[in-house]
Amino acid sequence: MSTTRFLTGITPSGTPHLGNYAGSIRPAVAASRTAGVESFYFLADYHALIKCQDPARVHRSTLEIAASWLACGLNPEHVVFYRQSDVPEIPELNWFLTCVTGKGVLNRAHAYKASQDKNAEAGKELDDGVTAGLFMYPVLMAADILMFNAHKVPVGRDQIQHIEMARDMASSFNHLYGEHFVLPEAAIEESVATLPGLDGRKMSKSYDNTIPLFAPREQLKKLIGSIVTDSRAPGEPKDTEGSALFQLYQAFATPEDTAAMRQAFAEGIGWGDAKQMLFERIDAELAPMRARYDDLMAHPEKVEAALQIGAERARALSRPLIATLRAAVGLRSLATQNTGAKQAKAAKAALPSFKQYREKDGKFYFKFLAADGRLLLQSTGFDQPKVAGQTIAQLQQQGATALAALGTAVQLADAISSDDVVHALHVLQEASQA
After folding, report:
1. With contact defined as beta carbons under 8 Å apart, do 239 and 269 qualify?
2. Are 150 and 7 in contact (CB under 8 A)?
3. pLDDT, tens only, 31-64
């Protein structure tokens, strides 16, 4: 079966903290090792410019966040880990999508409406302080996703609207210029870990209650010592419900150790002892990663090298796709211009082609035909038409690689070799770039 692409963007805005680690970094790094998944992680530095106009802060945060993900085990050889600004095809795709997106759609974007509502409450002009960057944010996010034809995008519920917008933009483009994009789906993680901060509220930079992920050992111990607790003395039973200290311990401990700590609370463990146990538990997990992080921060050229590996891998995909899209919208060499509609129609008719259809069994199929109408390739049945479309797009973009990866999902016609199919796919791709 085909590989599923997951894509995650990380905005470089500030220093990562324990909440970022438990809620995003740790589960994402674990997911990146899943078989059958192709993972894309990018530093959304273009997006950072919407809210931050401090160049030094953007630069520093990009280094800190990249170093954090690498230190936590993200392997740039196994995933595509890149900086958004290193892929110039993304802003070009952003413009293509801008030209097929209605302003009314962007008017309904949650972030834009929230800014307008805030201005209305303050008695200001509705668009006061609203930049075109904020207004166009959903288009750039769609370009990030569609550039690599991601199937799944892990997001919180507040971001579902942006994925729906990306699907709409992909559909509009496909309708006008042919099937080039798969329609992405939001991957909602219902059990995202949300850690409390020093004051018991959600750990957040806006509350100034965070514990930096790679704070030095002594600073980590001091911060944990400042976690707000109640006044119950040693020997008095303590509640785990609502305890920030217990929730933090649970996020780093095994189920067995968590149960032991729950018992210790019931037996009246002193807060000082509980904080010491929490410190030792967190430090044991973070210490090896902290050493790698400190090394990366001391040698930013290592981080840059990892990002350049990712940039090359990303551009190996983005360059051919943008070339295809340029041709699709009419940005072609004048030397290869067709001289009339009849010639264009005849040229199209003489090319290999995909045909999608639905059978009586309710499943969706496609076949790949040679220019002379001979059957080259036949798919098996798919439960959803979008999966058939995604498979066609994979064949068009990846050729022989996709043919090998799809296995039994597609079958060669009698007397047809894989070389015949690859050649026909190449002819189709060349025609789209002409």
Report:
1. no
2. yes
3. 899 888 999 999 999 999 998 999 999 999 999 9
Q: ∠ CA(389), CA(393), CA(399), 5° rounding?
A: 140
Cα–Cα distance between 3 and 317 in angstroms, integer?
Answer: 15
Geometric angle at alpha carbon 232, from 227 and 236, rounded to 5°? 125
Per DSSP, the residues of 73-124 read T--TTTSEEEEGGG-THHHHHHHHHHTTS-HHHHHT-HHHHHHHHHHHHTT-
Terminal CA-CA length for the chain: 31
Does the structure show a pLDDT above 90 at 243?
A: yes
Token pair for 26: 């740790």
Buried b (16+ CB within 10 A) or exposed e, 207-228: eebbbbbbbeeeebbebbeebe
Q: Rounded to two decimals, what is the model's pTM?
A: 0.74
- Dmax (CA) of the chain: 90
Residue/partner pairs of 222-225 with CB below 8 Å, 24 or more apart:
223/198, 224/248, 224/275, 224/278, 224/279, 224/282, 225/275, 225/279
Give the other-Cβ count within 10 Å of 186's Cβ.
18
What does the pLDDT read at residue 306?
Answer: 97
User: What pLDDT, on the 0 to 100 scale, is given for residue 134?
Assistant: 95
Answer whether 332's CB lies under 8 Å from 434's CB.
yes
Q: Report helix, strand or coil for 28.
A: helix
Q: How far apart are CA 169 and CA 98, in angstroms?
A: 9
Residue with more model confidence, 20 or 157: 20
Share of the chain above pLDDT 70, in %: 94
H or E, element range at 252: helix 244-252
CB 13 within 8 A of CB 156: no
- Give 431's contacts (C-beta < 8 A, 6+ positions apart): 347, 351
Point out which residues pair with 39 in neighbouring strands: 6
Nearest to 132 by CA among 140, 121, 122, 142: 140
- What is the Cα–Cα distance from 32 to 194, expressed in whole angstroms? 21
- Identify the pLDDT of residue 384: 86
**pLDDT (0 to 100) of residue 340:** 40
Helix, strand, coil percentages (3-state) for the chain, rounded to 5, are 55, 10, 30
Q: Whole-angstrom Cα distance, residue 399 to residue 250?
A: 47
